[in-house]
Specification:
By secondary structure, the chain is mostly helical. The chain has helices spanning 9-23, 30-37, 42-48, 51-73, 81-94, 96-104, 111-114, 119-126, 130-153, 160-179. The radius of gyration is 21 Å and the shape is elongated.
Length: 180
Amino acid sequence: MAAAKKIDKEGILDAAYRLVRKEGLGALSARKLAQEAACSTQPIYENFGDMGAVVEITKERMQEAVHALKTGLRRNRDADYSRCGTEFCRFAMEEKMLFKHYVAESGADMTLVREMSAVKALVDKYGFDSEKADLVDGEMIGYILGKAFLVNSGYEEFDEEKTTLAIQNYQEYIIGTFVK
């Protein structure tokens, strides 16, 4: 008989994060986690006592992944929606469940999306008043959010070059509309 596989606390947490990335936070149960970690539920309870600690630590890891995306999006200080929009769409493709958790299922919590906002840059770069800049910014964020939902749901395949070009073209169109 083969020796039983030993799994440590970190291995359990890694398996929990993999499971959440594949199936979502709602799938995180002791049985499913044990299956993902290729162990029984015993090491989970021995290391954590209950699933509450596993869930909390997994949520922290989810937050870290989202924080990394937010950091990149905050750099949209020059109204370069194509760069941050492409990154947002990449996140929607690569992190399907995290995108669903933090964007699609968050309802009114749109803080992740708002990180793309570039109202000040629009005022500075194009001379828009703040009202026009808000409108342009809203149009661009709405467009990017729509593309990200299409990518996340599988209705549109993510292609970095095509996504960047589409966002650039839309930005040119919107800015041209508001410059008149």
